[in-house]
User: What shape does this take?
Amino acid sequence: MCGFLVHYKFTENSKFSKKNFIKSSKLIQHRGPDDTHYFFKNNVSMVFYRLSIIDQSTKGRQPMFSQSGRYTIVFNGEIYNAKKLKDKIFNKVKFKGSSDTEVLINLYEVYGEKMLKFLKGMFSFVIYDNKTNKLFTARDRFGIKPLYYFKDKDKLVLCSEIKPLLSYIKNISYEETTFANFFFRQELESTENTFFKNIKMHEAAVFKIFTRKKEYSIKYWNIEKNVKLIKSNKNSKINYLSELVENSAREHLNSDVKLSLLLSGGLDSSALCHLISKYHSSNIETFTYDFEDNDLGESKKAKKISNFIGYKNHKVLIKPNYISNNFENICMELESPFTSIRLFGLRKVYQEVNRRGFKVALEGSGGDELLGGYEYNYLSYLLDSYKQNKKRILNYFKKLNNEKILNYIVTLSYQNGSTKDASPFINSELFNKEFLDKNLNEDFFESYKYKMKLNHMQKSQLVDINKVNLPRSLKYMDRLAMNSSVENRVPFLDHKLANFCFHLENPLKIYKNQTRYVMKEIFKKYPVYNFFTKRKKTIVDPQRSWLGKELFEYFFDEINSLEINKIEFFNQKKILLQLENLKKNKLTNSFQLFQILTSIIFIKTFKKKYNINLN
Assistant: This one.
């Protein structure tokens, strides 16, 4: 797990400052504090910062060359089936070490771009062909590992984070349409556009080829593409899925350094805790965060589960002053606004992981997206089953109050405008009319188009997988983990496991009002399952309470400052009124208000550090 910066010249006359290049690259030194190495040749320059996980010797150093010397790679990530792939080319390659990087670069030399279909893991990499001066780039199927780039007529610059690009390129402005996508579609990094104009995100499951004359991209994997599920009964599918889960957990334990686990107290991370104890003999420690004076948190349950399995548990506690003292820092680390106060808990828990000497942290993310675990996914499931279950569905809706029914109707028409519990959050009064007129039209709110035949629930899941929840949480995890020099791993996002889950029939995802049914059937055999009730519990945080009390003055000052008058997006008076309503406990949903608050501080922070402006 590492970070890199690459400069690729399109023309011989392209200006290049080695001093500025290296200076800018140091802004990602936290991603790889163990080793630094450089490569300068012809029209390409590379700098690499290494966090040593597999093969900690210099034989794993990057940039690394293929056996023939033709190809040079910088690679951020982990290839979990590297040992099997090594055997695949063992007769053709004489290996010097045991790193997955050496397997990856030589696999490319043997198979070219076709090698992507063999890879199981998380990755972003750049491969330079020293013979043809061609550049090959790729990113893993879900975009677990980041990659950004800037391109003009003279050069292409690629990096694991955005800050080095801002430092190196200069004269960058904000991308207004990305803010609109964030405020009204919850999209953070689901398109090529970032919050910075002309700095692009390399798309997930895509490889690109760059030459001096042209560029082209190919999507090499798509979860929507139908797969042949085993034609068997329910129990056989459950057993097969259980094998996929356990195989993925086992593969993600490969490491030359000690491992840790982020234990939230939820079912997924708890099941992962059980699997780790089953397949990993070394002692592992678990880490949990919670908020001060928050009786509804899961830290007590996490500690009980950790003790039950026999692991030591560490809890970090978040206080309001930690948030106010670190708001600009977290904006700088995330390189974007964000959506929840929970990110401060995640940030501090990674800091504690690092402080206690761990380089790797496993996490239970991804399960809800793959099996439709959110409340608004359930609405789409009801649509799919309406003809078969009219009476049961009507009885279900009779139990709901009018407000909840209205929320469901709104959410079904536009899922992006609701939080996971089907609560609409958009309030256009908080924005200036000019901003709304410029960025919003009928097409903006249209549902996503799908070429393949999918049911309503799969379409709802794809919003989570490709556009909203998963891209957002993966960005948060990578940036906050790597800021503390910790590699985060997500076993439930093994692509074979994910594909199988996505294409299961609906009754295996939801059964008798029980979401994620098939996974719960698997987890029932794990002893930790006894700690859970049948009903999914939403993680509770004190965001709404703290914004109206402990953090009120901090945010009031930010909104009331002269800086916000320079940001053309917002209606300052309406936002202040909204904050006052929150203080008086008249506001039930703080999601959009928090979006705006973080955006104000994000814009101010990057303006101050990199002189980024709104054009």
Remarks:
- The two ends are 36 Å apart (CA to CA).
- The longest strand covers residues 71-79.
